[in-house]
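Researcher: Can you fold this with pyridoxal-5'-phosphate in place?
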Amino acid sequence: MADQAKLCANAIWAELMRPAYAQIDLAALRANFRLAKQLSVGQTLAVLKADAYGHGAVACARALVDIADGFAVASVEEALELRQAGITIPILLLEGFFHPSELDEIAHHQLTSVVAYTQQLAQIVAFQNTRPRPMSVWLKVDTGMHRLGFDPSDLYQAWQQLQQLPLITAQCVMTHLSCADELDNPLTEQQLQLFRRVTHGIRGQVSVVNSAGLLGWPDARDGWARPGLMMYGISPFSRQHPVADTLRPVMHLRSQIMAMRELPAGEAIGYGGRFVTQRTTKIGVVAIGYADGYPQHAPDGTPVMVNGHRCPLAGRVSMDMLTLDLTDHPNPYCGAPVELWGGSISVAQLAKTNQTSAYELLCRVKRVTRRYFP
Ligand SMILES: *Cc1c(COP(=O)(O)O)cnc(C)c1O
């Protein structure tokens, strides 16, 4: 056992770093985005908010800049990160600005702001009255999600108000679908009908769909599509879908076996002793934990790939480590490559067994280094 421990230490120190990393497959990202573009009837924005759903916004932007019609982010800070990296294509601020003091930066860096409620519109008007600057905006209308967006009865007036500002380009009217991932939910059709009705007299572009809308609701594909999740290789649907199921996973969360031990039956493993060995059991310790973004409450039996073989999680996930039952693995060894999700283990499936979403698992990935593959 002492020899084995030494071996493990060597395997890790050979790389001079903790072996946990997120492999980001940029070719898959591009292929998924191309698929989104094929489905889209108009133009296609790549949604890169939240550091590109944990994949690294700058690297993803650089990989997509020659095929995307623009990018979408959640804040001026996120947009400036892209501008500072030399990205010059349009960037949409999905929630607009949070305070009028951001309007200078928005104008200066040629960001496109969503205007989603009366106060934001009044702030744009006030800004244009005091410091007139050219600016492109999208108006958002609430068609049923009831989060952001003008009331449908106020849309036309808001649009007219924007027309009166000489330096403002009112480019597009957008809305957001709340249940597009449920392919039998009638709300989507209601939202689409309302959207068509309220945008009828408005001469501007439109934008409706996220990934689920683009993949699942062909009638909604006009104008600017705004795919996020599907670009990262994940189907938004809980059921099989012929197109969504061809997406290629972009992130592979990986690490290594850092230590192994054999225990007799009846021994409890890890915090709380949740897993108790039922037989002579080979336990492998993996250098990754919930501080890296792996779900802390993953149940015993959750599959993890070790050198191409599926092994069950055994014991509670720790902050920096987790433990696997390697007894049925044909040749486990220290330094063996481990994949937590990405290839054989889908992040969507893992999310499901952990009562969360693929979105949240991806966004929670942190601390691990990212390794980009072209
Ligand atoms: C995040 C977001 C999207 C992308 O959604 P996905 O489900 O990841 O495709 C599109 N539109 C808006 C307004 C968003 O906030």
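Model: Folded with pyridoxal-5'-phosphate in place. Residues 289 and 318 are 5 Å apart (CA to CA).
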